[in-house]
């Protein structure tokens, strides 16, 4: 019983920290969008592999003599907004899990499996959607084309969360069988 109370207190603290992190992320995103820098510097690297990521970029830049700073700022703003929405959603879902665990510490329930699955899907989306959105908008709004795709540790975290989902699904099955036996 004492261990369960400790777990509930820890879950309350984690829920609060995750909510605060989501709010800070949203606030910083809002501030960055409102107070955008007036100058823009972008660097693009071609094929690169390090121990933690793989990056491939295909591009054809056309210099038509027109400044595209405004279009680039809109592209970066939309990509930032997309990334922030995904991160805030992940943090908020995680805080909901811990909030519910703080009320009743019974981790092997179907609702947690659903939320963990949602987090893993959002992590997969976070790994690809901002990059693809940047490539698409750059190709549509700027002269030339750009395709940028990078694989990094986000894919690993998404896979870990998906595996955790399956472990929890199995735990729910065992819990249900145990409850039916009693």
Automatic annotation (TrEMBL):
The keyword DNA damage does not apply. The chain crosses the membrane at residues 12-35, 73-98, 119-137, 143-164. Coiled coil: none annotated. Keywords: Membrane, Transmembrane, Transmembrane helix. This is DUF2975 domain-containing protein. It comes from Listeria aquatica FSL S10-1188.
């Amino acid at each position: 019983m004492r261990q369960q109370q400790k777990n509930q207190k820890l879950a309350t603290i984690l829920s609060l920290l995750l909510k605060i992190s989501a709010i800070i992320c949203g606030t910083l995103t809002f501030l960055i969008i409102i107070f955008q820098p007036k100058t823009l510097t972008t660097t693009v690297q071609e094929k690169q592999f390090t121990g933690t990521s793989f990056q491939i970029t295909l591009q054809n830049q056309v210099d038509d003599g027109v400044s595209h700073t405004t279009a680039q700022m809109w592209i970066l703003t939309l990509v930032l907004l997309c990334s922030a929405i995904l991160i805030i959603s992940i943090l908020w879902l995680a805080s909901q899990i811990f909030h519910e665990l703080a009320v009743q510490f019974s981790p092997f329930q179907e609702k947690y499996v659903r939320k963990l699955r949602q987090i893993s899907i959002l992590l997969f989306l976070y790994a690809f959607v901002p990059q693809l959105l940047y490539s698409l908008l750059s190709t549509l709004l700027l002269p030339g084309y750009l395709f940028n795709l990078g694989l990094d540790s986000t894919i690993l975290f998404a896979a870990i969360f998906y595996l955790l989902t399956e472990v929890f699904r199995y735990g729910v099955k065992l819990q249900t069988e145990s409850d039916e036996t009693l």
